Amino acid sequence: MIGTLKGVWKLNRDVEVIVLEENLFLFNFLTLKDKERILEGALWLFDKHLLMFQDFNGELPPDKHKFHTALFWFAYMTYH
Fold first, then answer.
1. CB 40 within 8 A of CB 58
2. What HEC string does the chain produce?
3. Residue 14 to residue 36: CA distance in whole angstroms
4. Distance (Å, whole) CA 80 – CA 69
5. Mind listing the pLDDT tens digit for each residue in 37-79?
6. Are 6 and 27 contacting, i.e. CB atoms less than 8 angstroms apart?
7. At residue 14, does pLDDT exceed 70?
8. Model pTM?
9. Which of 15, 16, 56, 69 shows its CA 20 to 30 Å from the CA of 31?
């Protein structure tokens, strides 16, 4: 998964990925520009699974962040 995301994201610099627990990862982007672009570019899907991101500043432990809402936009088209 990590290698695929790095290729899709087309980062200027590498990203360090730390597995904290099952389905919880810490992404350490080496440039602020890369980090901002990825956070602003959400929603990200991988293998039909939604990836949810939150900015981590070190004040709250990663396992205490809440990942239970995501905003979606969709278009509903009707054809006559």
1. no
2. CHHHHHHHHCCCCCEEEEEEECCEEEEEECCHHHHHHHHHCCCEEECCEEECCCCCCCCCCHHHCCCCCCCCCCCCCCCC
3. 14
4. 35
5. 888 876 677 788 778 787 777 777 777 777 777 777 778 888 8
6. no
7. yes
8. 0.69
9. 69
